[in-house]
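Table S7 (text form). Paired inputs.
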Amino acid sequence: MPVENNNWVKIAEDISEIYFGANNIAEREVGGKKICLGKLNDMVFAFASVCPHAGGFLAEGCINASGHIVCPVHSYKFNIRTGYNVSGEGYYLKHWPVAIRADGVFVDMGK
């Protein structure tokens, strides 16, 4: 059960508890909502689990070498930092700040 502190929700005691597959994406349930966590270099990002374009499950996609979240359905790419799709159609992928601290890994679900 996640521990809540204001809008920050604890999702793990340590980053090593989160398994990022070969695609660098993990899925977690936070407050009854499925979200994805993406790892790019040593940074972790949280974003919606469903693509806003065609409803693809982003946990089945990947993070490419350019740092884009790639949807498995139509290969739509989203900037991992901003959530905007990179080809300019105007799709926006909801995302949340992540904090990795000594007392755990937290996602700010209030943003």
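Next pair, protein 2 of 2.
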Amino acid sequence: MMIRHTVTFRLKHPPGSAEEQRFLEAGRELSAISGVQNFECLRQVSAKNQFTFGLAMEFADQAAYDSYNRHPDHVAFVQRRWIPEVEDFLELDYVRL
């Protein structure tokens, strides 16, 4: 069953800063991890919440998603970039009904 993994977030960096751009570029590199499909890096535009960006991707099944979560590049991104640079986030994982 296909899984759509999404995360919406707000960075600690000033809007439009070089640090913001470097973070987003590093995030885009996650698309190269085996099993990632339909990767998107998004700007959140609704005034209904405080988040500013989103990442979305799909995985063919739970095994592909689990492999992504354990992948060294993903683990390194979370430790080196996500934890120190993200102010707040909401993660949602969907399967079709």
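The beta strands are 3-11, 37-43, 53-59, 86-95.
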